[in-house]
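In the laboratory, one determines a bound structure by crystallizing the protein with its ligand and collecting diffraction data. In a computational setting the workflow is compressed into a single prediction: the sequence and the ligand go in, and a structural description comes out. We illustrate the idea with zinc ion.
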Amino acid sequence: MSIQPLQIDNIAFAKRGEHLTGDLSLAHCPRLAELLASQLPILQNDAIGTHALTSVNKTENSIHFTLDGEANAVGQHFLHLALASNLTTYCQRCLEPMPVKLSLSFHYQIIDVNAKHSELDVVEDSDDFDMQEANQAMDLVALIEDEIIMATPIAPTHAHDCAVASMQSGEKPNPFAVLKGLIKP
Ligand SMILES: [Zn+2]
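The predicted complex, in structure-token form:
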């Protein structure tokens, strides 16, 4: 898949009830790629930056998206975005690779500030909706990338207690190892 900006006229998309689905890779999302690269363990003699980015781009990372447009009887416009991403990051405690699977859904109401008053009405239960400004060239890839970045943990760690294992595999003797033997369950 070539790296093309994916721009939609969001009001028209909603009006026509259009449906769009596709897959993105990290090549489409340089800011997300940088975030994941920043979580790579820093190895000795590793040129930080380019090497990390290359490593991140080589791992299996995919983002699947589905976008649906909707317009209701009173002329309000909506976008429904579903994302399923499969990314690889690194546990900040044991530094082992760690998959991060996100399954997200977002609901946006499109607000056209130039439209007649009725279109400015925000849906009553607006907690469930984020706002998007009417845009004839809304950058869908940037929106998806933003949502994934916000959902990606900044300092991810394994759910299980992986710190003990990594300490024991270290080359330095663990000064607490002797204490561990004293603690009986
Ligand atoms: Zn870990």
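The beta strands are 7-8, 19-24, 62-71, 77-90, 97-111, 130-133, 138-139. Keep in mind that any predicted model is a hypothesis to be tested, not a measurement.
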